[in-house]
Amino acid sequence: TLLLGVMGDPIGHSKSPAMHNIALEASGIPGMYVPLHVKPEQLGEAVAGTKALGFSGFNVTIPHKVEMMKLMDELDESAICCGAVNTVVIKDGKLKGYNTDGIGYVRSLKEELNSELSGKHITILGAGGAARGVVYALLREEPASVTIINRTVDKAEQLATEFSHDTLQVQSGSYDTLDKVLPQTDILINTTSIGMSPNNEETPLEQSQIPEGIVVSDLIYNPLETRFLREAKSRGCTVVGGLGMFVYQGAYAYEYWTGQSAPVSVMRSALLEAMN
Ligand code: ATR
To answer: Which stretches make up the Quinate/shikimate 5-dehydrogenase/glutamyl-tRNA reductase domain (predicted)?
Structure first.
């Protein structure tokens, strides 16, 4: 029996157990995915405990994603680049840390657009932890350009410098530079927390600033449609919400643990149901 779980503090609100337990059941894999309430001061003991108990792996959520880096025997490139671990695989008594958030988001974006991202001009709002994962994953898709816009411009610059490589110079700027950047943008992605939580009507851009007919995406999945996406829709944009990111970060984790492809549509319905 596969033992899996998710460590966080708090953890009661997590939708991951519902999503993964249904996935295991749908695939006929005997297993159980449990919420693990772990306080920061007991993280080390809790991680050691999963090994002792024979867990095959676990997810990591707030506030443990960065601290988890130090507790791994091995780190995947995704975790190193993001500086955070959201998925742990336990094999032969060794812990390997991954980060599936950014690659999960990019997989959902490609899936929902039914299109590759190569050659696209992509603009990202925000330069925090979420943006880092997304930039990491986007750069593997050979976009034509990536521009990071942030309120604190230093953080955007830092991220851009860190991820720039020989073939692609990542750009950065303040919201004031958007007048120049947006006319060149094919895909605009909000990674900031603006508009998070239901009934929140804040939005990162004025409706009139949103270019007509481009792709606009928001990592936020609660609400399912932020004001930003609603207004983008009314500007004739194709919109992609954040639910798919949650589904696919879980799908990657599931695939690492089980070696089987994840039943994505079952996971999506379970997640939607758990949100109601
Ligand atoms: P996460 O891990 O979710 O990305 P984070 O690392 O705290 O969280 O980053 C939050 C992002 O949202 C940052 O880019 C932040 O901008 P600053 O770096 O300038 O703080 C952005 N953000 C949050 N509230 C904002 C606001 N009211 N206006 C503009 N940007 C905001």
So the answer is: 112-193
